[in-house]
Amino acid sequence: MSSICSPPPTASPPVPVGSLTLRLLKTTVFHNASSTNMRGLALLGDLETHAVDYSTSMIRFLQPWAHQGLTPKQWQDLETVIRHYLSKFILLMNKVIKDEGEHRSFVTQFSLGCELHPNGTSR
């Protein structure tokens, strides 16, 4: 009976084939000097593959195959770089807010990407 009531398992989309665009997106909302919300994700084509938990700087794998390509040590090193970048970014933005005397909310958005080709090259 439980199998009838249980939703069917959702299958993860396969790794896309052909030339694709890899995009990294980050949105930050600065509510004030002590309240900031961030969202970051990676997309392969239109498929979300990774997200960043900004409270811990940990990378979450949104597809079962998304951890492939880097070793656990390389993922850990990348998380260290993200943590360092985020702390410097927030310090810089809070300094700009203080220097400008602005006390209203604002949003920053960043996008970075490249084309990945089946032969292993990128552009």
UniProtKB/TrEMBL annotation:
The keyword Glycoprotein applies. InterPro entries: MHC_I-like_Ag-recog (IPR011161), MHC_I-like_Ag-recog_sf (IPR037055), MHC_I/II-like_Ag-recog (IPR011162). Coiled coil: none annotated. Residues 17-122 form the MHC class I-like antigen recognition-like domain. Keywords: Glycoprotein. Pfam families: MHC_I_3. The keyword RNA-binding does not apply. This is CD1d molecule. It comes from Chelydra serpentina (Snapping turtle).
